[in-house]
C-alpha cells in the first residue's frame, strides 16, 4: 500500500429508505493498484462504486480520491468527478453519433476542448483500445465488445486518474469478453488505478493486486487474489466462489435461491 492512497473509503454507509445497503466500508486503494470487487448480487458492489464518484450520495462516511474529499460539502464535485472514469455494463453510447463524436462530446462539453483537440485525443484513445479504424463508424455497426472498448476510450479521453468498472464484460457474448479484458489488462500495466467489479475470476487472479469480497454491504475479505480466491478464510467467500465456479451444483444445493448469481455467472468464470 502506498503511503497516500489514491482512493480512500472510510466508514461508508448508504441506505435507500430502510434498506441499509452499505454498512461501513473501509477500503484503501494505492496509486496504480488494481482491486477487483466480487460478491453476490445485491451485496452493494455497484452502490459502492457509485458512491466513489458520488453518483450516489453516501448516508455517512468519507470518500477521498487523490487526496480530495469528495464527501466534503464544499468540494467542487464536477472537478472531482472529472478525475474518475467510469465504465458500466451497458455502454451508453449515443447511437446517432459516430465513434469519434461520442468521444469528443464529453471532452468539449465538460473539459471545453476545441473540436480539433477533442478529435485528436479521441483518435489517440481509439488507438489505445485497438479501434482506430472505427473512428467514423456508428455504434450500431460495432460488436458489443467493440462498443465497450469505445466506452473505455471515451472515459480515458477525459484523462482520469482512476477508473471504475462495473461488470464491464457481463453483457457481452463470451467470445467478445477477451478483447475488453485485454484493454483493461493494458491499463493496469500502464499503472492506472482501477476498481473493478467483475466475476471474471481468471482476470482477477491474473491482473488484480487485491480482491475484495463483499457480502451484505460489508467487506468480508480483502487480500491478494491467491488469498481471497485461492484460500478464502471465510465460509461466505468459499460459498460464493463455489457457486460461481459451479452454478449447476449450487442450484441443486439451494433450489431456487441459487438462481441469481448462476444466471449471471453464465459459466464464464
Ligand atoms: N437507486 C436505488 N434505490 C433503491 N434501492 C437501491 C438503489 N440502488 C440499489 N439499491 C438496492 O441496493 C442493494 C444493493 O444493490 P447493488 O446494485 O449495489 O448490488 P450489486 O452488488 O451491485 O448487485 P449485482 O451483482 O446484482 O449488480 C439492492 O438491494 C438494491 O435493490
Ligand atoms: Mg451491480
Describe the structure.
The strands form two sheets. The protein has a six-stranded mixed sheet, with helices on both faces. The chain has 269 residues and is α/β, with parallel strands linked by helices. Helix 4 crosses helix 5 and helix 9 (235-245) packs across helix 10. The protein is 40% helix and 22% strand. The chain contains eleven helices and ten strands. It is globular. The structure holds adenosine-5'-triphosphate and magnesium ion.
Keywords:
alpha/beta; binds adenosine-5'-triphosphate; 40% helix; nucleotide-binding; binds magnesium ion; 269 residues; 6-stranded mixed beta sheet; membrane; ATP binding; ATP-binding; single chain; transport
Could you outline the blueprint of secondary structure elements for this entry?
Blueprint: E1 7-16, E2 19-29, E3 34-38, H1 45-52, E4 60-65, E5 68-69, H2 77-81, E6 84-87, H3 99-111, H4 115-128, H5 144-156, E7 162-166, H6 174-189, E8 193-197, H7 201-207, E9 210-215, E10 218-223, H8 225-230, H9 235-245, H10 247-254, H11 259-265
Parallel strand pairs: 3-8, 3-9, 6-7, 7-8
Antiparallel strand pairs: 1-2, 1-4, 4-5, 9-10
This protein binds adenosine-5'-triphosphate (ATP) and magnesium ion.
The site of adenosine-5'-triphosphate has 11 residues, from strand 2 and helix 1.
Amino acid at each position: 500500500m502506498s503511503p497516500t492512497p489514491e482512493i480512500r473509503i472510510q466508514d461508508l454507509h448508504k441506505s435507500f429508505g430502510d434498506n441499509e445497503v452499505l454498512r461501513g466500508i473501509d477500503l484503501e486503494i494505492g496509486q496504480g493498484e488494481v482491486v477487483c470487487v466480487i460478491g453476490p448480487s445485491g451485496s452493494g458492489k455497484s452502490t459502492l462504486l457509485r458512491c466513489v464518484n458520488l453518483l450516489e450520495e453516501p448516508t455517512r462516511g468519507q470518500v477521498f480520491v487523490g487526496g480530495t474529499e469528495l464527501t466534503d460539502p464544499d468540494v467542487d464535485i464536477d472537478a472531482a468527478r472529472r478525475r474518475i472514469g467510469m465504465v458500466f455494463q451497458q455502454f451508453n453510447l449515443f447511437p446517432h453519433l459516430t465513434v469519434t463524436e461520442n468521444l469528443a462530446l464529453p471532452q468539449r462539453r465538460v473539459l471545453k476542448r476545441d473540436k480539433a483537440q477533442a478529435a485528436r485525443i479521441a483518435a489517440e484513445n481509439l488507438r489505445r483500445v485497438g479501434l482506430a479504424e472505427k473512428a467514423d463508424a456508428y455504434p450500431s455497426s460495432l460488436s458489443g465488445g467493440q462498443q465497450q472498448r469505445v466506452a473505455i476510450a471515451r472515459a480515458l479521453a477525459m484523462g482520469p486518474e482512476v477508473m471504475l468498472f462495473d461488470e464491464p464484460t457481463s453483457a457481452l457474448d463470451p467470445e467478445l469478453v477477451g478483447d475488453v479484458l485485454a484493454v483493461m489488462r493494458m491499463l493496469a500495466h500502464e499503472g492506472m488505478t482501477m476498481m473493478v467489479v467483475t466475476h471474471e475470476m481468471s482476470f482477477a487472479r491474473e491482473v488484480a493486486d487485491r480482491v475484495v469480497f463483499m457480502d451484505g454491504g460489508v467487506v468480508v475479505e480483502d487480500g491478494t487474489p491467491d488469498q481471497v480466491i485461492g484460500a478464502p478464510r471465510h465460509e461466505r467467500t468459499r460459498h460464493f466462489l463455489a457457486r460461481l465456479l459451479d452454478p449447476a451444483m449450487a442450484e441443486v444445493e439451494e433450489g431456487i435461491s441459487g438462481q441469481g448469481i448462476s444466471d449471471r455467472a453464465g459459466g464464464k468464470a
